[in-house]
Specification:
Layout (H helix, E strand, L loop, with lengths): L1 H7 L10 H15 L7 H7 L3 H17 L1
GO molecular function: NADH dehydrogenase (ubiquinone) activity
Family: Belongs to the complex I subunit 2 family.
EC number: 7.1.1.2
Length: 68
């Protein structure tokens, strides 16, 4: 919403006439959820991390994008 307020002058997220804002938000959510085509980083990061770090990466970071 900060980027939307900066570009449009409005704090309403539902009103997003700026395509750059919409694209940025969609790509960020896709990256957080591990959805294709941004899913390539996900297995590599999980493979190189400890069990507790992999647990945090694979569960906790998914709550915020799913809540949107």
């Amino acid at each position: 919403s900060t980027f939307n307020a900066w570009t449009t002058g409005q704090w309403h997220v539902s009103h997003t006439p700026a395509p750059m804002f919409t694209t940025t938000i969609i790509l960020a959510i896709m990256l957080k959820l591990g959805i294709a085509p941004t899913h390539a980083w996900y297995p590599e990061v999980l493979q190189g991390s400890t069990l507790s770090t992999a647990l945090i990466i694979s569960t906790w970071q998914k709550f915020a994008p799913l809540a949107l």
